[in-house]
Amino acid sequence: MKYLAKSDSQINTLVSEELKRQKDELEMIASENYASEAVLETMGTVLSNKYSEGYPDKRYYGGNQIIDKIEQLAINRAQTLFEADHANVQPHSGSQANQAVYLALLNPGDKILAMDLACGGHLSHGAKVNLTGKIYDVYFYGVDKETGLINYDDVAKLAKIHKPKLIIAGATAYPRQINFDRFRQIADSVGAYLMVDMAHFAGLVAAKVYPDPVPFADVVTSTTHKTLRGPRGGFILCKKHLGEQIDKAVFPGLQGGPLDNIIAAKAVCFKEAAALKFKKYQEQIIRNAKILSLVFANNGIKIITNGTDTHLILLDVTSIGLSGGQAEKILEKIGIIANKNLIPYDTRSAKDPSGLRLGTPALTTRGMKENEMKTIGQMICDLLKNPNDKKIVEKSKKKVKELTKKFPIYKDLEY
Ligand code: DSN
Q1: Alpha carbon distance 290, 297 (integer Å)
Q2: What letter would DSSP give residue 193?
Q3: Which one of 25, 53, 346, 370 is the catalytic residue?
Q4: Is the CB of 361 under 6 A from ligand 1?
């Protein structure tokens, strides 16, 4: 980055340090991934200079002939990839996509039924500390205390009691498949809209290795950067009759100018996600997560729902005498990056909860498979159980180095 190096050596150095960190550590945050070089290149283009408020052929600024083609391509590719009637690719993030849906379908004070944050929901699904929790009247369903699974009968009961105008399915820390057909039935039983936030599992949906929410939901929201492995951003899919409302809510309702460089990168991401090799990648993500969870089970660490169907695993690390924060720090010291997370019915606070969330999307992007998962899983167990054993710590550091060297990312990228 010769221009940056000349104009701002501090930022240039920090960017290159972050590239090195990403190359040298094992990234196991379930919501992170390594976008392709093509996606990264697209984000760094002159498309960033343009203002294009409005939509293709309906802009409030001149000079948008090329931007129109780019956005239309992104829309078409999203619609084709997910077999959706309508797509809006402008949301800057998943949270903004969610807010746009509420703005389109609800009035302030309307009732929402969503998954509780501690059970795997998301801040923007109506948490009290979030704007959505302040504007709308939000009720929550959880998961079964014993199994950790969504209890659909309970959701149906809560829907009957509260009569929400919108039901939200989708989660950030739920390791199992969600029955969208059942959610549709529940929504229909009370005349509610159904929104599915598929941000975490959008890549799995694109590859058809996870239940498809599109046929069942009125609206589906997502990010593009998690399992989908694109640029950082959001998008919305919906039924045809809601398209105009959704578009109006995104712009001018919630956002101003779209990020055209990011929209172009979303188009690149949707093209990549339509390839056969992407399907194989998603299948491997799940195989890797399943093997990893077996290693934890064999080592006596409690796994929420006893396993996984997806890209993520949620451990209750209090089962081995640690808090989530302690576990995160132990792993971080040797270059394994994960995040502390609430578990269902957590008795600890969100600042230092009982859980540790782990995911396989980024490791799988590096090309790692079952054998590496066994090695990494065992290393995590040994470290968490013996955090002060210098021999184990040193051996693990060496192993992380070996693995990251053997499975490199961004081989040609130098900052
Ligand atoms: N922050 C994301 C995650 O880590 O799951 C959700 O938006």
Answers
A1: 11
A2: E
A3: 53
A4: no
- Give the mean pLDDT of 31-44: 98
Using a CB cutoff of 8 Å and minimum separation of 24, what contacts does 242-245 make?
242/86, 242/104, 242/105, 242/218, 243/85, 243/86, 243/88, 245/104, 245/105
Out of 59, 165, 232, 340, the active site residue is: 232
Residue 252 DSSP label: I
Sorted by sequence, the CB contacts under 8 Å of residue 157 that are 6+ apart come out as none
Q: What is the pLDDT of residues 349-403, one digit of tens each?
A: 999 999 999 999 999 999 999 999 999 999 999 999 999 999 999 999 999 999 9
Distance CA 220, CA 227 (A): 16
Dist. CA 350–CA 339, nearest whole Å: 12
Tokens of 105: 């379908």
The answer, as to whether pTM is greater than 0.85, is: yes
Pocket test for ligand 1, best of 95, 99, 221, 226 (most atoms within 8 A of CB): 226
Q: What is the pLDDT of residues 156-203, one digit of tens each?
A: 999 999 999 999 999 999 999 999 999 999 999 999 999 999 999 999
Q: What secondary structure does DSSP assign to 290-318, as a single string?
A: HHHHHHHHHTT-EEGGGS-SSSEEEEEGG
* Nearest C-alpha neighbor of 71 from the set 53, 98, 44: 53
Helix (H) or strand (E) holding 280: helix 276-298
What phi and psi, each to the nearest 5 degrees, are found at residue 130? -100, 155
Cα 320 to Cα 121, 383, 391: the distances in Å are 25, 11, 20
Catalytic annotation present for 212: no
Tell me how far apart the alpha carbons of residues 167 and 184 are, in angstroms, rounded to a whole number.
9
Residues contacting 405, CB < 8 A, separation 6+: none
Question: What domains are defined for the chain?
Answer: 41-273 (3.40.640.10), 276-406 (3.90.1150.10)
Per the omega criterion (within 30 degrees of 0), is the bond before 252 cis?
yes
